[in-house]
Predict the structure.
Amino acid sequence: MSLLQLEGVTKSFGAIHALQGIDLTISEGEAVGLMGDNGAGKSTLMRIIAGNFLPTAGKIRINGSEVHFNKPVDARNNGIEIVYQDLALCNNLTAAANVFLGREIRKKFGPISYLDHKAMFEKAAELFRELKSETRPRDLVKQMSGGQRQAVAIARTRLSDPKLVLMDEPTAAISVRQVAEVLNLIHRLKDSGHAVILVSHRMPDVFEVCDRVSVLRRGTKVADKQISETSPEEVTGLITGAIENA
């Protein structure tokens, strides 16, 4: 049984049809690359899965049961977390503080409640070790490399031990070495049984870490193929329209 199943998902913004009848499935431990040109509908689809947008039509199923996400917390409660392209990190806070932002661990002393910094530092350190990242809990985010920032954002998703992690352009605007760090993090997620949907314009990244690639063009899915059964040339043709569908 598929972990996530989308059936005929459509999204319209007034007269603009951003998505038209999208079908997509993903299983545990699988990584699917979602590719397409600007305006193809990738981010809209991700935001529907993450609970930011309501679909105009269509169904979302988790483990075979239909679900309705009215807000992001609904998706999170169903085991879905998202890492946005801008990472949504607070530069003036530590790595640990960012990991627990909005979900802080607290201790009570009588009627007084206070933050348990020690517990949060220890848990953050554990998450970074699991991801085999050199990021340290007490380091300030503003002093970190792009790869370390991604590790913080991914560690934040691991707090709830999600079934599915959505990643929106995680390797955009970072160095070659940092790209390698992020791809290793995606491998770690897959190895621990998490499913991943990776939105990326970088063809080598998708072909390195993904099992399948789905291509959107003008709001329609034009291909869904195993990586082993396609090529960068074919995917490029599908993205540009030189190849109609596959």
Q: What stands out?
A: The mean pLDDT is 92. DSSP finds eight helices and twelve strands in the chain.
